[in-house]
Amino acid sequence: MRLLMSSVPPALRQQWLQYAVAPRPIGLVCTVDEEGHPNLSPFSFFNLFSTEPPVLVFSPARRLRDQTVKHTLSNVLAVPECVVHIVDTSMVRQASLSSCEYPAGVDEALMAGFTHIPSECVRPPRIAESPVQMECRVTEVKSLGEQGGAGNLVICEVLMLHVSDEILNPSGTMIDPHRLQQVARLGGDWYCRVDAHSLFEVEKPNQKLGIGFPGLPEDIRHSPILTGDQLARLANVEAMPEVLTGFEDARVRHIIQYFAHTPEEMERELHRHAASLLDAGSLQEAWQVLLVASHI
Ligand SMILES: Cc1cc2nc3c(=O)[nH]c(=O)nc-3n(C[C@H](O)[C@H](O)[C@H](O)COP(=O)(O)O)c2cc1C
C-alpha cells in the first residue's frame, strides 16, 4: 500500500502518521498565561533534540476542525517558559484527562486531580505526581503553517531537571528504566508502557567495528532460517570467530546423527538451533553451531 501524502485528507493523514510514527513519548506541559493562570496539556509530538545545549521540542498543532491554536501555544508566546513532565503508567489517565479542551484560564491540572508545586527557575508550576520534571525556557517557536493540523515547534532549553529518588538505580547514580515506567502514545487510543516485559538491551555497535553483513560467510548470510535481526547479532562481532576444539553440544550431536543422510536438512536444523541460541542471548555458542554447519 502506498499513500501519496498530498492526496490524503488531513484528518486521515494524521491518523496514518500517528499509527506509523509510534511509540511517541508524552510530554505533559505546564505553561502560564500573562496573568499567571496555569495550563496543562499532554503532547506526544515531543522529543529530546540536543544535550549541549539541552533542548526539547514539542508541537501544539492547529486544530483540524477550525485551525485555531491551543492555549499552550498562546501561553508560550506570551510567557516563554514551561515545565515539561514525563508521563508514567500511574498518571497516564490523569494526563489524558488534562487534554480535555476546557476554556482558557481553566487549569487542567485541577480538573485532572494533579498537585501543583512551585518551580525554581520558571513561572509555570510543576506537577508533583510526575517522576521527571524539566523546567524550561522557550527559546523559539516555529510555525509550520496556518492550516488545521499545522504544527508549531516549541523549542525549549532545559534549565533544571528534577528526578524522583524513587526511579533511581540502587546506587542512586542514574534513572533505572525498570523503575521509571514511561508510557508512550501510538495511533488512535493506543498506548504502550515500558516495563520488565518490554525492556531489552541491544549492545552498542560503535564501541567496536562489527564485521557487518558482508563479513558473514555466504551460507550464513543467505540462510533460509536466520532472520535479519539474528544476522545482525552475528555481524556485530569484531572478527570472524574461530572453531573451538573443545566445543560440545548435545543438540548438535543429535542433529548430526539424525540427519546424517540429508545434509541440507542437517544444515537447516543446525541453523534453527543457532537461531534459538541467538534469541536466548548465547552469541558465542550460536557461532560455534553455525561453524559446524558450515563445515558439513
Ligand atoms: C497523550 C496525548 C498526546 C497529545 N499530543 C498532542 C500533540 O502532540 N499535539 C497537539 O496539538 N495535541 C496533542 N494532544 C491533544 C492536546 O493535548 C489537546 O488538544 C489539549 O487539550 C490542548 O490544550 P490547550 O488548548 O490547553 O493547550 C494530545 C492529547 C493526548 C491525550
CATH superfamily membership of the largest domain, which one?
A: Electron Transport, Fmn-binding Protein, Chain A
Strand content: 15-25%
Known CATH architecture of the largest domain: Roll
- By secondary-structure content and strand pairing, the structural class works out as alpha+beta
**What is the end-to-end distance?**
43 Å
Q: In percent, how helical is the residue content?
A: 25-40%
Characterize the overall form: elongated
How are the strands of the biggest sheet laid out side by side? 3-2-6-9-10-5-4
Describe the structure.
- With 296 residues, the protein is of the alpha+beta class.
- The protein has 2 domains: 5-193, Electron Transport, Fmn-binding Protein, Chain A (Pnp Oxidase, Chain A, Roll); 205-294, no CATH class.
- It is built from 9 helices and 12 strands.
- The strands form 3 sheets. A 7-stranded antiparallel beta sheet has the order 3-2-6-9-10-5-4, with helices on one face. A 3-stranded antiparallel beta sheet has the order 1-11-12, with no helix packed on it.
- A hairpin with a 2-residue loop joins strand 4 and strand 5.
- Flavin mononucleotide (FMN) binds at residues 26, 39, 41-45, 59-61, 70-72, 96, 99, 101, 185.
Top keywords for this entry?
296 residues, alpha+beta, Pnp Oxidase, Chain A, 2 domains, 7-stranded antiparallel β-sheet, 3-stranded antiparallel β-sheet
